[in-house]
């Protein structure tokens, strides 16, 4: 099995890559972070690629095609974007957030589709978010992009299903890690709350009163890439402890 994980050098992406490696898969990882790529284990096919650069993405997929094709795509590239009221968001910040989260997924799917069609099978896993299910205040560009990722996934499932290709979206809840620490800090300022209170609020908004880990999300990606999920397509699957309230005030 050959697997590509975009933004796979750290966080959720690295956990996904590690999960597939544990199954014996040949893993390719793309990322913009040179230092994170350099820290990856030997034996991984690591490439420095901007997920929004079509020329670079086309070249990456051409290299994968030469290596024998692609079985699983985890289109995981994303950024948190600004935390601000919609009227305070700058257009360039909106565009930067939407570009990585949505255009990155589109380009990955665009170039994965022909490889999978040629093979007559494949699994595309897009990383959305619970923000793409519920929306989220003060995160308009992120929520809009992640909502659009689900629309992209549904369309891929319809277009590619006749070729034996599946598409699904994982919607992580609040994932412990550096990216969410930045979100917590910005939300704390905006809401006039402490970082710990905002952190507690995220957990309180779920039925299980919990955050999730990158490994929780990776486990779902590995399942969706496996033969065990061969009839699962077009699905939005939250890994979030069940969100009841996307913006609790604790």
Brief account:
The chain has 250 residues and is of the alpha/beta class. The mean pLDDT is 95.
Low-confidence stretches: none
Helical residue percent?
40-55%
Mean pLDDT: 95
> What is the radius of gyration?
17 Å
- Counted by DSSP, the helix tally is 9
Specify the overall morphology: globular
Query: Between the first and last Cα atoms, what is the distance in angstroms?
Result: 45 Å
**Oligomeric state of the chains in view:** single chain
Report on the biggest sheet.
7 strands, parallel
Which H/E pattern describes the elements?
EHEHEHEHEHHEHHHE
| Percent of residues in β-strands | 5-15%
**Could you give the count of β-strands?**
7
- How is the largest sheet built, in terms of strand order? 3-2-1-4-5-6-7
- What would you call the structural class? alpha/beta
Could you list some keywords that capture this structure?
250 residues; alpha/beta; 7-stranded parallel beta sheet; 7 strands
């Amino acid at each position: 099995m050959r697997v590509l994980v975009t933004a796979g050098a750290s966080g959720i992406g690295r956990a996904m890559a590690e999960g597939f490696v544990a199954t014996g898969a040949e893993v390719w990882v793309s990322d913009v972070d040179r230092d994170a790529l350099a820290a990856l284990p030997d034996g991984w096919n690591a490439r420095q690629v901007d997920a929004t650069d079509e020329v670079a993405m086309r070249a990456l997929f051409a290299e994968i095609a030469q290596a024998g094709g692609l079985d699983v795509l985890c289109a995981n590239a994303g950024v948190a974007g600004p935390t601000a009221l919609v009227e305070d968001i700058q257009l360039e910040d909106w565009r930067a957030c939407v570009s990585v989260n949505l255009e990155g997924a589109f380009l990955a799917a665009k170039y994965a589709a022909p490889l999978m069609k040629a093979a007559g099978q494949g699994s595309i896993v897009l990383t959305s978010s619970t923000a793409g299910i519920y929306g989220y205040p003060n995160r308009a560009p992120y929520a809009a992009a992640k909502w659009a990722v689900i629309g992209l996934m549904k369309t891929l499932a319809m277009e590619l299903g006749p070729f034996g290709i599946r598409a699904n979206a994982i919607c992580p809840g609040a994932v412990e890690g550096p990216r969410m620490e930045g979100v917590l800090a910005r939300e704390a300022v905006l809401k006039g709350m402490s970082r710990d209170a905002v952190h507690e609020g995220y957990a309180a908004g779920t039925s299980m009163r919990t955050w999730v880990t990158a490994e929780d999300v990776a486990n779902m990606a590995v399942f969706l890439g496996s033969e065990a999920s061969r009839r699962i397509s077009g699905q939005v699957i939250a890994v979030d402890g069940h969100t009841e309230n996307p913006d609790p005030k604790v």
